[in-house]
Amino acid sequence: MNKYDITENDFNPTVLFASKSKLVEDGYYHDHDYTEITVILSGTGKYYIEGKNYDVKAGDVIMCNPGVMHQSLEANEKEPIVEFVAGFTHFHFTGMPENSILLNDNEFVLRMPLEGRQEIMKRCYEMVAEYETSHLGKYFMLKAQLMQIILLILREMQPVKETQKSYRFESYNKNYVVKKIISYLNENYACKISLDQIAQNLYLSPVYISKLFKEETGESPINYLIKIRLNRAKELLEREEHGSIRSVASEVGYEDVYHFSKLFKKYYGISPLNYSKKFSRQKQ
């Protein structure tokens, strides 16, 4: 038996809005007559809720039920907060007040584990994208996505069985994320790639991805990308018909041939042009 009984009649929320925004200044202390979920997509900062300060970071869920006073405080200038916010009403779970979701220990901030964080962020981005369209059935798609977010939060608050070791899931997911990043880099090295693009593709924060990737591989995602590109460039330069150095640079994702040549020489101790000539002589 689950802690929270959910029935078809009680779980039919009305979606009021969904948005994504960057916090550039402090908010004001206020409340709502509806429930508001905030998910921190990236960055770090502080929130002031019902007289208490909360440090928040990417993946955290902030739950403000009707009448809960709250405001956003200073954000980290180096890591400004980007948040997803959704407002909704008309729902009721057994054991909770109407139109309210009570977090464990009467807290207002829920720190999600990696797996749940990815799932919720994915749906947040999907809701924002859907909210900005005029597609058929838009409202019902938004409702379906919001219901999934709510269910993921409720599941996270369920007690974990002793046979489930959370650290094993965490370790597995770290390995999974790194493999996904490497796969993404190998498939898209010829395109413009930034850490923000990689992060958005995986629904995680750029800072977290960079830290995790370095812990698992010993280098940053961008350095790993450089190695993929330069290794591919070497393969192209070893062909008899490889075109100009500029075309090789372009084929591995570099528009600036000078920058490409500088990187190539830094990694291999020889310029791309001289490498091509040297390899040609060796084959003769």
Strands, helices and their partners?
Elements: E1 14-22, E2 35-42, E3 44-49, E4 52-57, E5 60-64, E6 70-75, E7 82-89, E8 109-111, H1 114-131, H2 138-156, H3 166-188, H4 195-202, H5 206-217, H6 221-237, H7 245-251, H8 257-268, H9 272-283
Antiparallel strand pairs: 1-7, 2-5, 2-7, 3-4, 3-6, 5-8
Helix pairs in contact: 1-2, 3-5, 3-6
Pfam family, one: AraC_binding
Keywords: DNA-binding, Transcription, Transcription regulation
Organism: [Clostridium] polysaccharolyticum
Model description:
This protein is of the alpha+beta class and 284 residues long. It folds into two domains: 143 residues, Regulatory protein AraC (Jelly Rolls, Sandwich); 120 residues, Orthogonal Bundle (Arc Repressor Mutant, subunit A). Helices cover 45% and strands 18% of the residues. Strands 1-7-2-5-8 form a five-stranded antiparallel β-sheet, with helices on one face. A three-stranded antiparallel β-sheet has the order 4-3-6, with no helix packed on it. About 4% of the residues have low confidence. This is AraC-type DNA-binding protein. Keywords: DNA-binding, Transcription, Transcription regulation. GO terms for molecular function: DNA-binding transcription factor activity; sequence-specific DNA binding.
Question: What's a quick, concise take on this entry?
Answer:
The protein has 284 residues and is α+β, with helices and mostly antiparallel strands. Helices cover 45% and strands 18% of the residues. The strands form two sheets. Strands 1-7-2-5-8 form a five-stranded antiparallel beta sheet, with helices on one face.
